């Protein structure tokens, strides 16, 4: 069966899950346009995930996805933790907080999966790895369609072998975190898509730098059954991005984005700012510890209106992003 039929959508577009940016209004507006809305639930607890799902259901009766972060085991190296914290202190001081508490996050991945099943969510997508076989089996038995994320052909093959129904191939142009789970490949979308199309037989969704109808059509011609769009929707009315983040997106020029691990310990693409520059050679704790270390800095920067210390994830084509409602922006791709 073709991907659009499997997903129950009209247009070959998935609104990218964007943790911290997607709101119920944003996801529902996407689904109501006939594309697949996606909840970026990576940082949510199970209860928050349920509330979010129910809020979307109140606004649409169309299919949507929940996107989860596959958790990673990390050993905390106390020495590196201390060094990474100290490296952040000059930034903390600039924000008026020479010291701050760092509660370590813990994933509720298994409980989130139970929520997806109980709430009868149509689609569950994953990034940062593959769920365990038991989770895949439970979700499939419950009739949930499963989508993995790959940044190389090797990862795409692993997604197919694990039994997932479709794969997002994420090119190096993409905004936000790299979904990599075997090494740190960085392959432009066109090359990755063409090679993946030869290697896997599950439907492929192309992601990374798709900013208009032309780039979308090109990826569909090269073998993608759908595209996943993030950055193009970042400054929409329904997006939960901070107003100063939206402003930076709308003002961005070509070449504004870089890849960095300074915010979270995992490579991600965003608009280059003071934080990245100051932390360039600093010791960085592994993900998710670095993310925990910088959480208070990011929230304080947002509260105080200091975009130079906020993480403003965005893709290489950010300079094409426009204002408007989700519907107005999506219409430029599909009407
Ligand atoms: C702000 C932002 C947050 C993101 N968060 C997630 C996420 O939570 N889960 C995920 O699978 N991908 C996430 N991504 C990556 C997108 O799924 C997708 O790969 C990317 O947006 C495609 O490239 P584009 O931004 O150039 O459209 C995020 C991207 C952005 C820009």
Descriptive report:
- The protein has helices at 3-7, 24-32, 46-59, 78-94, 109-118, 133-141, 153-161, 189-199, 213-221, 243-251, 274-278, 289-304, 326-334, and strands spanning 13-15, 37-40, 64-69, 123-127, 145-150, 166-170, 176-177, 204-207, 226-229, 257-260, 268-271.
- It has a domain at 3-71 and 107-241 and 321-334: Aldolase class I (TIM Barrel, Alpha-Beta Barrel), CATH 3.20.20.
- The strands form 2 sheets. Strands 1-9-8-6-5-4-3-2 form an 8-stranded parallel β-sheet. A 3-stranded antiparallel β-sheet has the order 7-11-10, with no helix packed on it.
- Helix 2 packs across helix 3 (46-59), helix 3 packs parallel to helix 5 and helix 4 runs parallel beside helix 12 (289-304).
- It is built from 13 helices and 11 strands.
- 39% of the residues lie in helices and 14% in strands.
- It has 335 residues and is of the alpha/beta class.
- Bound molecules: flavin mononucleotide (FMN).
- Residues 16-19, 21, 40, 42, 67, 127, 149, 170, 173-176, 179, 207-210, 228-232, 313-315, 317 line the site of flavin mononucleotide.
């Amino acid at each position: 069966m073709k991907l659009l039929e499997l997903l129950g959508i009209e247009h070959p577009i998935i609104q990218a899950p964007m943790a911290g940016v997607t709101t119920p209004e944003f996801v529902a507006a996407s689904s109501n346009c006939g594309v697949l809305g996606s909840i970026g639930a990576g940082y949510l607890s199970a209860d928050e995930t349920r509330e979010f799902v129910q809020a979307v259901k109140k606004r649409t009766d169309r299919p949507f996805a929940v996107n989860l972060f596959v958790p990673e085991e990390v050993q905390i190296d106390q020495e590196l933790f201390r060094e990474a914290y100290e490296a952040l202190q000059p930034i903390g001081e600039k924000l008026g907080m020479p010291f701050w508490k760092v509660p370590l996050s813990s994933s509720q991945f298994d409980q989130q999966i139970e929520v997806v099943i109980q709430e009868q969510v149509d689609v569950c997508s994953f990034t940062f790895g593959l769920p365990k076989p038991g989770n895949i089996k439970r979700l499939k038995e419950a009739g949930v369609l499963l989508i993995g994320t790959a940044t190389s052909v090797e990862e795409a093959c692993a997604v197919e072998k694990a039994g997932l129904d479709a794969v997002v191939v994420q090119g190096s142009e993409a905004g936000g975190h790299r979904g990599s789970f075997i090494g740190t490949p960085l392959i432009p979308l066109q090359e990755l898509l063409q090679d993946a199309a030869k290697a896997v037989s599950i439907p492929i969704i192309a992601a990374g730098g798709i900013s208009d109808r032309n780039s979308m059509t090109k990826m569909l011609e090269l073998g993608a059954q759908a595209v996943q769009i993030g950055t193009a929707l970042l400054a929409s009315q329904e997006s939960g991005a901070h107003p100063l983040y939206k402003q930076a997106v709308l003002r961005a020029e070509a070449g504004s984005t870089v890849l960095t691990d300074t915010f979270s310990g995992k490579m991600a693409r965003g608009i280059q700012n003071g934080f990245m520059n100051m932390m360039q050679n600093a010791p960085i704790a592994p993900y998710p510890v670095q993310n925990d270390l910088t959480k208070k800095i990011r929230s304080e920067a947002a509260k105080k209106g200091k975009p130079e210390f906020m993480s403003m994830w965005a893709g290489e084509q950010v300079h094409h992003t426009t204002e408007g409602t989700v519907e107005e922006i999506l219409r430029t791709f599909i009407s």
